[in-house]
Amino acid sequence: MSTCPSCEEPLESGDRFCGACGYDLSAVPAPPDDLPTVTLSTDVAAPAQTPDVDWPSAPELDSSDTPAPVHLPTDLPGTDSGGSELPSAVRFDGVPEQAGESAGDYTLPAPDPRTAPPEALATPPAGTKLCVACRAGHVDRDGYCENCGHAQPRERDHMEQELGAVAAVSDRGLRHHRNEDAFAIASAALPDGTPSVVSIVCDGVSSATRPDEASLAASRAASEALLESLPRGTHPQQAMHDAIVAAAEAVNVLAQEPGAAREHAPHQNAPACTLVGAIVAKDLLIVGWVGDSRAYWVPDDRTAPAARLTEDDSWAAQMVAAGLMNEAEAYADERAHAITGWLGADAYELEPHTASFKPDRPGVVVVCTDGLWNYAEAAEEMARVIPADAAHRPLHSAQVLVGHALDGGGHDNVTVAVLPFPVPPQGAGSA
Fold it and tell me: Which of 83, 146, 148, 350 is the residue whose CA sits 20 to 30 A from 371?
């Protein structure tokens, strides 16, 4: 030893005790004859190698500038880093164990409505609605699902109704945030027992306040007035006139609100809308309107001419009527669709328009807002768009017409009613 094992003091050869600390050097064991070494032989068996994984490889780039295609995640096989297939069930950390389930398994709170059989989906209690997304939760008063939180579509975003002899469809369109159109369809018996069919279509004026409320109030008031007057024997044309007056009064009432309610928007107009309606009674076809919503006549025999039955209350129509412009020039002007007549407290003067016709052949009446006729303005265009079997399938025809407007861009709300007109008694002429 060259140093003391206790204090590391240098030692001299032959020392039996440390001169510094007195440590007994004879107690230290003698060193072994050889020193152990680590085996460096390469004959030891190597650990098992991981099998090769057949990963897909991208093709070589050619000399062109076209980049090589890449692999999408869905194109790659579901394997782990060792080449084994992944488990079929996805597991999540931290999900508490539930009765009958293994810890970590995540299950949907409701069956998937795309794959579940009808009997597996919940049925909502009376007076409540079922969520259109999860088909399991109920919809609260604010329009959200209590189960998944999905916002439900508003009822007026898309509406359809059919009463056999008349059908109507209304859609929000593709650009508006809400549907400001409304319609009402009904039937009533005349004093002699013969049926009459009624349709009312209203278009809220977007530049006014609460246009959706105005159109709904007008359509309901006009329909109720007709259902009351027609069974009493009132002439259908007079009944239509009175119905428009009743609709105007209903819209005027909406403007009668406290002054404090308008202090935040003092420059906005009162609620307003347009209206167009049609009555089929015996051999008579009655139309009435205020504004730029329209009614068209399309005969079943498409070789016969179609016709527009209304004249717009608009700037363009006034220019044409005054002889200042032809129709093409007037409707090409940016002021063309500015309406000059409407229902509402701000209207200059209420002037209901009514007209009576006696078609000499069967056909259909198309009652619509400008959300449709902007995409089929001429009567000939409307006749080309509406299906040939419109008289027998009015709801399908209304759906096709709304679809035509949506395919064209859907810039406005779209509402259309289709009324088949039967074959009149023999001898009836046109008027």
Answer: 350
d(CA 119, CA 345): 52
Which run of H or of E encompasses 176?
none
Residue type, 88: S
Domain end position, chosen among 152, 177, 197? 152
User: Terminus-to-terminus CA distance in the chain, angstroms?
Assistant: 137
**For helices 236-254 and 211-229, angle between their N-to-C axes, nearest 10 degrees:** 150
DSSP letter at 48 equals P
Tell me: the pLDDT tens digits for 29-86? 666 555 444 444 444 444 455 445 455 554 555 555 555 555 555 555 555 555 566 5
In whole angstroms, give the CA distance from residue 409 to residue 127: 36
* Residue 363 contacts residue 293 (beta carbons within 8 Å): no
Quick check: is 308 in a domain? yes
User: Quick one: which of 345, 368, 349, 144 has its CA closest to 277?
Assistant: 368
pLDDT above 50 (res 104): no
Residue 140 structure tokens: 């609260």
Got the DSSP string for 318-353?
HHHHTTSS-HHHHHHSTTTT-BS--EETT-S----E
Residue 431 in contact with residue 195, Cβ under 8 Å? no
Contact 130/138 with Cβ under 8 angstroms? yes
Could you tell me which of 294, 315, 302 has the C-alpha nearest to residue 378?
A: 294
Please answer whether residues 305 and 384 qualify as being in contact, where contact means their C-beta atoms are separated by less than 8 angstroms: no
Domain endpoint, select from 104, 128, 152 = 152
